[in-house]
Specification:
Blueprint (H helix, E strand, L loop, with lengths): L2 H18 L6 H4 L3 E8 L5 E8 L4 H10 L1 H11 L7 E6 L2 H14 L5 H7 L1
Parallel strand pairs: 2-3
Antiparallel strand pairs: 1-2
Amino acid sequence: MAKYRRDRINDAVKEELAQIIRDVKDPRVSEAMVSITGAQVTGDLKFAKIYFSVLVGDKNEVMKGLKSATGFLRTELARRVNLRITPQLTFEYDGSAEYGSYIHSVLKTLDIKDEDDEGENE
């Protein structure tokens, strides 16, 4: 399968799951602020890794809630995205947002002077 087609499928799966996840009745998912950050569908369309991040709530509880709602999510995905095969969904936590905020806090603690400040002191 061509790379551009797989990228379009990945984007479609990501966008639709971001909408579908709002309809999940499981309180572990509905009470947490869950964001779908990415999707990777295999070339044969049988499997898809869905990457998510959690802003409010426990990531382990959200993972359990998503695993229990996999059947609902897959059924809704099949209705909304026209694919030959609806992929089996596996969820993985994406900690890049937490890592980014950690790096931001480290950079804020550094005492770096601008070149403009050095020129004024001379």
